[in-house]
Design a protein that fits this description.
four-stranded mixed beta sheet, 203 residues, Translation Initiation Factor IF3, 29% helix
């Protein structure tokens, strides 16, 4: 007994020629002629021109079908999808980590990164990590986050207040939509650092 192999799937071209289920269509031909006619008649006319009948507006009443080259139609559809994809911007959440005793140099470096992320249309999640006894001074981390939010208020808006979860305090900053021509981001002017308690860096 010969083993039975599954038949290879034949890809059916949907909404093209005989796959069109509507009884009649509003057929559009290359010469500009538009006519409501039985689907089979429209298919025959399209094939006489060496073309396919493609359903381009299936929800219209009656459905609109166009006589054109199927390969060309596929190319145009693919091009439209690629253009639409280019216009779409996938919003990402960019994470920046700080320590409660982060120095000004490191703060300024990460501030510039945050500005770039926001101007690119992404959200920023800023985290302050506490180690050892630093958790006793969680207010220092929250103050740092609020300082960051203030320095970024031109570029983004804070979502709620800083939240403390375990050994992390964090905030989410969402980019601000600006109308008109985009301008090059100005160099950030950091706010004055919050005073650090002497024992905050000990862990």
């Amino acid at each position: 007994m010969h083993p039975r192999f599954p038949r290879p799937r034949v890809r059916i071209r949907e909404n093209v020629n005989e796959a069109i289920r509507a009884r009649e269509v509003r057929a559009v031909f290359p010469d500009g002629a538009v006519e409501i006619m039985p689907t089979q008649q429209a298919i025959r006319r399209a094939k006489e021109l060496g073309l396919d009948l493609i359903l381009v507006a299936p929800t219209a009443e009656p459905p609109v079908a166009k006589a054109m080259d199927y390969g060309q139609w596929q190319y145009e559809q693919k091009k439209k999808q690629q253009e639409a994809k280019k216009k779409q911007h996938v919003i990402q959440v960019k994470e920046l980590k700080f320590r409660p005793n982060t120095d000004d140099h490191d703060y300024d470096f990460k501030l510039k990164h945050a500005i770039r992320f926001l101007t690119e249309g992404n959200r920023v999640k800023a985290l302050v990590q506490f180690r050892g006894r630093e958790i006793a001074h969680a207010d220092l981390g929250k103050n740092l986050l609020m300082r960051l939010a203030k320095d970024l208020e031109q570029y983004g808006a804070i979502e709620g207040q800083p939240r403390l979860e375990g050994r992390f305090a964090h905030i989410i900053i969402t980019p601000v939509k600006k109308e008109g021509k985009k301008e090059k981001p100005a160099e950030p002017k950091p706010s004055a650092p919050s005073p650090v308690k002497p024992d905050a860096a000990q862990g």
